[in-house]
Write a structure and sequence with these properties.
The chain is an alpha/beta fold and 404 residues long. Helices cover 27% and strands 22% of the residues. The chain has a domain of 114 residues: NAD(P)-binding Rossmann-like Domain (Rossmann fold, 3-Layer(aba) Sandwich). It contains ten helices and 17 strands. The strands form three sheets. The chain has a seven-stranded mixed beta sheet with strand order 7-6-5-8-9-12-11, with helices on both faces. It has a five-stranded antiparallel beta sheet with strand order 1-2-3-4-10. The structure holds zinc ion.
Length: 404
């Protein structure tokens, strides 16, 4: 069986940054045997355990502040309907997505407009944009499933394909793209595709959202390190990528308790040359210091949780995780040889009854806990702790809740 191992990262000295193309990268950490598709659901435990794995060989670019996996192999990625990453079953997440949609509608007066969403997943965010602003939306995503929620919505359609140049005839007042850019080896490829699609419609607004790499690097959000995410944008590297590829940045916003980063931009109508010097990583970001300490801090955090799980196992405490998203899957894989976590809870019914890639735990419903009676519930994202505690209280469970 594969165990997730951590080594010192390979030298990044001759590696070129995927955003700024300079050779000024510092190795961060190398993590072996992590699932290639951490959000792929498996119907059988044996298949889940045998899921293919890859290597995360993270480096930090000292020039633009970008973090990326220099061993990423895009040929190993494919996304199909078994790829389940909808977070929309959480009221907390839904509130966030709805307020983000409303914020964009208000800011850019999006009423009765055309909206495109690249990588719309199951379509929840695009539906909100259409509904709240009476807009017309076209989404692009090969993993979209028709009529999954049983509710049809007018002015909303999805093309089950990757967005590419061949769809450049679909003009839009807003082109949004959430949690996609970090999956693409060279961000310029997608940014150029969007640029071509916009063509001469210079008033089109572009909105991208990515996980904030600073949260991983500085706040040790290490459970967000997944193979699918080859890029970890920091505010500076995000600005760099957009400016270098012909956009004018309108603004950036930190969201979801500092875990996400949003950028609004338009095409740059001038042919002015890009000035890289303007985007050198400012000294005061603290990112270079965090990068230097990252490997040590990573090991410490992992050791702490391994020790916790082993102690719980020795005292016969039943531990479950809550949240079978990227964070939960990563945690279970990194902890694979420690303790005995048998189940992971998720409120998304499409995940229940399936198995976690790599480590093989079964995903169960919250109700299952009434029978299982866990002693400890580990919450994979502190942002959901209140809603999880409420669910436990409603079910009359006394389990102790800890954020991981
Ligand atoms: Zn760079």
């Amino acid at each position: 069986m594969n165990n997730t191992q951590v080594n010192a990262a390979n030298s990044g000295s001759d590696t070129r940054c995927v955003v700024c193309d300079t050779q000024n990268c510092t190795p961060l950490i190398k993590i072996n045997n992590i699932p290639i598709h951490c959000n792929r659901l498996w119907n059988a435990k044996e298949d889940a355990v045998a899921a293919s794995t890859g290597t995360m060989n993270l480096v930090f670019c000292n020039h633009c502040g970008h973090v990326f996996n220099q061993d990423f192999d895009p040929d190993r990625m494919d996304y199909d309907p078994d790829y389940e990453n909808s977070l929309h079953y959480s009221p907390r997440f839904q509130d966030y997505a709805d307020s983000l949609a409303q914020g964009l509608i208000d800011k850019f007066s999006l009423h009765g407009k055309d909206i495109i969403e690249i990588g719309c997943g199951k379509g929840d965010f695009l539906k909100a944009l259409c509904k709240l602003g009476n807009n017309t939306g076209v989404g692009f995503d090969p993993s979209f499933e028709d009529n999954r929620d049983g509710q049809s919505q007018k002015n909303f359609s999805v093309i089950k394909d990757f967005y590419s140049d061949k769809y450049s005839s679909y003009g839009a007042d807003l082109i949004c793209c959430r949690h996609v850019l970090e999956h693409i080896q060279y961000p310029a490829a997608l940014l150029n595709t969007v640029k071509k699609a916009i063509g001469d419609r210079l008033e089109s607004i572009v909105f991208f959202e990515v996980p904030d790499g600073a949260f991983t690097l500085k706040d040790m959000g290490i459970w967000d390190l997944i193979y699918e995410h080859c890029s970890y944008f920091t505010s500076n590297s995000l600005s760099y990528a957009f400016s270098k590829n012909g956009y004018t940045e309108l603004g950036q916003e930190s969201a979801f308790d500092g875990q996400f980063l949003g950028i609004e931009a338009k095409l740059n109508p001038t042919t002015q040359d890009f000035e890289p010097a303007r985007f050198n990583l400012p000294k005061n970001t603290g990112l270079a210091t965090a990068a230097a300490k990252f490997a040590t801090n990573y090991q410490e955090k992992v050791s702490y949780w391994k020790k916790q799980l082993n102690q719980h196992a020795q005292t016969n405490k039943k531990v479950v995780l809550w949240g079978a998203g990227s964070k939960g899957v990563t945690f279970l894989n990194v902890m694979k040889s420690s303790g005995q976590v048998e189940y992971i809870v998720d409120i998304n019914p499409h995940k229940q009854g399936k198995f976690v890639a790599g480590s093989g735990q079964e995903i169960v419903s919250p109700e299952f806990l009434k029978t299982y009676q866990p002693d400890i519930v580990l919450v994979m994202n502190p942002i959901y702790q209140t809603e999880i505690q409420e669910s436990l209280n409603k079910m009359g469970l006394n389990a102790t809740c800890h954020a991981v």
